[in-house]
Amino acid sequence: MRCKKLLKYAAGISAFVWVAVLFIFCEARAADIGNCLLCHKYPGLSRIDENGDLKLLFINESVFNNSVHANVKCEGCHPDIKKIPHENVRKVDCMLECHIIEPSSEKKFSHKDVETFLSRSVHSKIDKEGKPKKYPEDYPDCKDCHDNPLYRPLSFFKKVRPGISEIVLGRCRVCHKKDEFIFRFYNHITTRLHAIRSPKNIAEVCAKCHEDPALVARHGLSRKAVSSYAETFHGKAANYLSEGIPDCLNCHVNIGESVHQMLSHKNPESITFKDNKIKSCRMIDCHPHASAKLAKYDVHPEFDKEKSPMEYYFTAFFLILTGGTLLPLAGIMFLDLGRRLFSRKKEDKE
Amino acid sequence: MTAAEEALNAVHGGQTDVEGYFTYVSGVGYIPRDIYKYVKSNPFGDLPRYSVHIVIQHILIFTTFIALAATGIALHYSDLFWAPYVIRLFGGIDTSQLIHRSAAFVMIGASVYHILTIVGSTAQKILKKEFDIRRTQVPLPKDLFDLIHDIKYFLGLTPHRPKMEKFMYKQKIHYLAILWGSFVLISAGTALLFPEHIALLWPFDPAFLQDLARIMHADEAIMALIIIAFWHLSNVHFVPGRFPAQWTVFTGKITREHQLEEHFLEYLRNLSEIPEEREYMRSLLAELGFAEREGSLDETRP
Question: Which of A83, A98, A178, B295 is the most exposed place for a label (fewest CB within 10 A)?
Fold first, then answer.
């Protein structure tokens, strides 16, 4: 604990020194504010925030350049940073219009549509009548679910495997001259041809809220969704980074719609609605020939006394059976062992 | 009636004295109960116990058991720190899934093989009129008395262990446990492996059945693992005198000492079935000075 605190202070002081040094040396360079990495490429760059937590301000350039936002300039998302030292830095707003022109519509790119999808989903902060829901702070916004994910390019040349196919790049070069462009475009497309995050990763995102017992209770949800997922083979295999099993989205997103438009299972339009569920079970890679009865299986089982008493007592029965068999057997074994050692000692004496 | 059968019937019918220290076998002599302390034994076994089929079945069962337990328990406890290492050892989740299923098929095969062996050899014995329920794994009232007797012995209340058959009470409990365990694991495992078919076949709420299968498969497996690790291994293989292993599982033969101590009645059958063994025992008794005893047992007690 102590060590951690010391570290924090040390980091704080180092940031302070940085500011001081940079302040002097940057007066002349204020025009070069665009070159954010000049300073932010240093791993030690950090400060202590208002809550006393260490905040790392280091940006790893090579990681950033492999992320989906690599083409966006720092100022694209941090438009308010114009000065050094920066003054009242505001939180990044994901709805900003970007400098990038979206090629199909030739408009400035933005994520506004995602907000529309989100507002139609169960995660919307506003209910159908347009009134704010209770506990609005419990509803996720973009940054609750998102970080800046890395590209996950795929090569399909002979076999599907992770990575970039040099042979394919060769074909791109026939028409496109800039390697940078080719590289980005390749990544942009192939990353989207499969899940960008592993099922485990997705579950972790949702766990922030859906494993919080207080939140679950506040919103009248019937169970903790992630640990109950982990009771089934789906969740267990997800823990081993298997990607063949369904993640939260495969079951909760209506097929062909945005992942941001998840609906409550009570909503008849939702794929998790009791009459629709079987559609997700029957996805081509899952149980394509399953009968409608398969959908009756509980994919979020929670074994506790109140919700599933039969299962609870069943588990108890097995515990008692194990104990009830093992203890007497072990008792006999130890008695036997005792007698063997005892009589051996006696013989040794004789 | 052979000499051994006479002696056996006497024991089962309670006709000998309470202690039964000496057992008379005609043509051999009076065998004292603690003779096992004096016999010569080959650690790899002297007397027949298991046929080659049983040996093969045991090898199949324990190798598949290890593979099943390692992959299965690691999957069940996927959130524990050591589990990923085990899964990686088996080549990742997809490969270990395949290993788990293949091992299960082999184990089921071995179980079927076992049933065939048992049914076949029992039928053979019945035809030859050699069948004797006392030599089987079927629990009998005598096992309960043996258990009580043995506990008394362990506590030092009686001087000698009970005279037991080829399968003693512990082995019968264990065998029953394996029957139950295989039934539970195989049926629940099938339900987990073929969710679609089981949902179709089961006339009631399939969710309940599936939940039970999940619980049963995991809990029974953990129980089996605990029993095997803490009880079967320590009891059968790590007991003082048998460590590091009881080779019976590979050779099919039991040591003379062990047979005499824990399966005395089976030893008597060995005496009538194996002439060389009769010869050995006779000369051993002579060597120890027990051969010439006559008259009532009480007089001969040292």
Answer: B295
Contact A123, A140 (CB under 8 A): yes
For chain B, how many structural domains are there in total?
1
User: Quick check: is B108 in a domain?
Assistant: yes
Question: Does ipTM surpass 0.85 in this model?
Answer: no
> Any idea what the Cα angle at residue B244 is, between residues B241 and B250, rounded to 5°?
105
Q: What's the one-letter identity of residue A10?
A: A
Confirm whether B40 is domain-assigned.
no
**Please, is A150 exposed, middle or buried when counting C-beta atoms within 10 Å of its C-beta (0-12, 13-18, 19+)?**
middle
Q: Evaluate whether residue B274 is within a structural domain.
A: no
Q: Is A67 helix (H, G, I), strand (E, B) or coil?
A: strand
Chain B residues lying within 8 Å of A341, measured CB to CB = 240
Contact B208/A310, CB-based, under 8 Å? yes
Q: Which residues of B touch A315 (CB under 8 A)?
A: 215, 219
Please write the tens of the pLDDT for every residue from A171-212.
999 999 888 889 888 998 999 888 888 899 999 999 999 999
Residue B104 belongs to some domain of the structure:
yes
Counting every residue written for chain A, the total comes to 350
The Cα–Cα gap between A57 and B192 comes to: 49
A residues 304-323 lying closer than 8 A (beta carbon) to B: 308, 310-311, 314-315, 318-319, 321-322
pTM of the model: 0.82
User: Where do the domains of chain A lie?
Assistant: 1-70, 306-339
